[in-house]
Amino acid sequence: MAFEKDNSFFTGRLKSIGYAFKGALKLITTEHSVMVQFSLAVLMVAAGFYFDINRYEWMMQLLAFGLVLGIESMNTAIEKVADFVHPEFHQKIGFIKDIAAGGVLFAALAAIAVGLLIYVPKFL
């Protein structure tokens, strides 16, 4: 099956959105780290409703989720490409994968900080 580019602006964008949703669903249903992070995002949304957080807190919380899930998506893509290119262990591939995982850690730490700033005062 040959790749055929859709030159129509509207249908091309619709197809791109469809591929994006397909990719997001694959991530949520096949990658354990994304499953955990997505589940935490759902729990935090429920907590947001329960604690009636304000608009600014919602904005920060949603940006934090988006950051973590977006960076995790890029990390997963890098790992999949690296494993495809070099299936056996290789020190340089391992280094690249570690750096990508480090990016996820930075995003996760930022999201944890946002969550603490929003929810700790609600318990005090």
TrEMBL record:
<dbReference type="GO" id="GO:0016301">
    <property type="term" value="F:kinase activity"/>
</dbReference>
<dbReference type="Pfam" id="PF01219">
    <property type="entry name" value="DAGK_prokar"/>
</dbReference>
<keyword id="KW-0067">ATP-binding</keyword>
<keyword id="KW-0418">Kinase</keyword>
<keyword id="KW-1208">Phospholipid metabolism</keyword>
<keyword id="KW-0444">Lipid biosynthesis</keyword>
<dbReference type="InterPro" id="IPR036945">
    <property type="entry name" value="DAGK_sf"/>
</dbReference>
<protein>
    <submittedName>
        <fullName>Diacylglycerol kinase family protein</fullName>
        <ecNumber>2.7.1.-</ecNumber>
    </submittedName>
</protein>
<keyword id="KW-0812">Transmembrane</keyword>
<keyword id="KW-0443">Lipid metabolism</keyword>
<keyword id="KW-1003">Cell membrane</keyword>
<keyword id="KW-0808">Transferase</keyword>
<keyword id="KW-1133">Transmembrane helix</keyword>
<comment type="similarity">
    <text>Belongs to the bacterial diacylglycerol kinase family.</text>
</comment>
<feature type="transmembrane region" description="Helical">
    <location>
        <begin position="34"/>
        <end position="53"/>
    </location>
</feature>
<keyword id="KW-0472">Membrane</keyword>
<dbReference type="InterPro" id="IPR033717">
    <property type="entry name" value="UDPK"/>
</dbReference>
<feature type="transmembrane region" description="Helical">
    <location>
        <begin position="99"/>
        <end position="120"/>
    </location>
</feature>
<keyword id="KW-0594">Phospholipid biosynthesis</keyword>
<keyword id="KW-0547">Nucleotide-binding</keyword>
<dbReference type="InterPro" id="IPR000829">
    <property type="entry name" value="DAGK"/>
</dbReference>
